[in-house]
Design goal:
about 0% helix, Diphthine_MTase, four-stranded antiparallel beta sheet, WD40-repeat-containing domain superfamily, single chain, five-stranded antiparallel beta sheet, repeat, mainly beta, WD40_rpt
Length: about 350
């Protein structure tokens, strides 16, 4: 069921619900627009919306921040609401930026940049926070990855290594062992690195045979420490068993009919995921007992499906989804028609 929609002023590529109370009603969205010509430029914006509550969902624009073209945004994993909730941004200028939430009686909620650092001459394509939200891994357009610490609002690069031959579209910390970082790239390789000392010399594994096209999404399963999901341009959602850390096993594969750019786990239903499938809209899939199926497809966007996320507030009487698409600049809020708990 459609609940609300709006058009952004640039090409929409990411949406993220804040996972922390009392900010669960806040939705961040980002854009990336390439201005071609003699002097090409990459511009973008970060938007902050208030979506209300699940009984009366809306899109109330609170703030728009103009910046360089944004490839990825992520809310911090840890946060007690006391000013520690942060939103990180990876952009086309090679910068990593971090915002925190301000709250005033007059203006309500807003984002304030607390740190920004140019970490590379290449573009920053993706990012992920470690479980304690004190480090950020960033994937770069030259195939490198960087680990940047975030302490006292300061960003400092502590590791950088060339892990792939082409663009590194996805990077993720292991949720249970923050010394491990997973990466995926246009070179079709899915890799894991031990970042305690010289990651380039401490590759835990590299799988180059399973994905037949570029790897664009890696999403550890928050309810199973030995399971993670990958998405690829080859239109397949894959589930991996990582109990043998040096030789993960691809135990389940689900064809989604479009390049799997984003995978988001449902906040309360194990095995239920939301996927952005590029040329084939959005899909909700369920994986259990080694089998996977598509529960619902959503095709009300007119362009590349890139951004997707679940509402993560305490009130889970119904599931609420945010999705965005690129060239039509469309942001939508909707509720799945399917009973996802069955």
């Amino acid at each position: 069921m459609d609940a609300a929609h709006c058009y952004l002023e640039g090409n929409a590529d990411a949406v993220e619900f804040c996972p922390h109370e009392p900010y669960a009603n806040l939705l961040a969205a980002s854009t990336y627009t390439l201005q071609e010509g003699d002097c090409p430029s990459r511009s973008g914006s970060v938007y902050l919306f208030d979506v209300g509550d699940v009984e009366d969902v809306c899109l109330n624009l609170i703030q728009k921040i103009d910046t360089a073209g944004v490839f990825d945004i992520r809310w911090s994993r840890g946060g007690d609401g006391g000013g520690n909730v942060a939103l990180a941004q990876a952009d086309a200028d090679g910068c990593l930026r971090v915002y925190k939430i301000d709250e005033t009686e007059v203006k309500g909620f807003s984002l304030r940049e607390v740190s920004g650092e140019k970490i590379s001459s290449s573009m920053c394509l993706c990012l992920d926070w470690d479980p304690s939200s004190t480090s950020i891994v960033v994937g770069l357009s030259d195939g490198s990855a960087s680990v940047v610490t975030f302490t006292d609002s300061n960003l400092e690069t502590v590791q950088e290594w060339k892990g792939h031959d082409f663009e590194l579209w996805t990077a993720s910390f292991d949720l249970n062992n923050p010394n491990l970082v997973y990466t995926g790239s246009d070179d079709c390789k899915f890799s894991c690195w031990d970042i305690r000392d010289s990651p380039a010399d401490n590759r835990v594994f590299q799988n180059s045979k399973v994905h037949t096209m570029g790897v664009c999404c890696i999403s550890p399963n928050p309810s199973d420490p030995y399971s993670l999901f990958t998405g690829s341009y080859d239109e397949t959602l894959r589930v991996w068993d990582t109990r043998s850390v040096s030789r993960p096993v691809n135990e389940t594969s689900v064809s989604l009919g479009g390049g799997v750019w984003r995978i988001k786990h449902h906040p309360s239903l194990t095995g239920v995921v939301l996927a952005a499938c590029m040329h084939n809209g959005f899909a909700i899939a369920k994986v259990s007992d080694g089998k996977g199926e598509v529960m619902e497809s959503y095709n009300k966007h007119e362009s590349l499906a890139y951004g997707a996320d679940w509402y993560r507030g305490k009130d889970q009487k119904r599931s609420v989804v945010a999705t965005c698409s690129f060239y039509d600049r469309l942001l939508r809020l909707w509720m799945p028609k399917t009973d996802l708990s069955t």
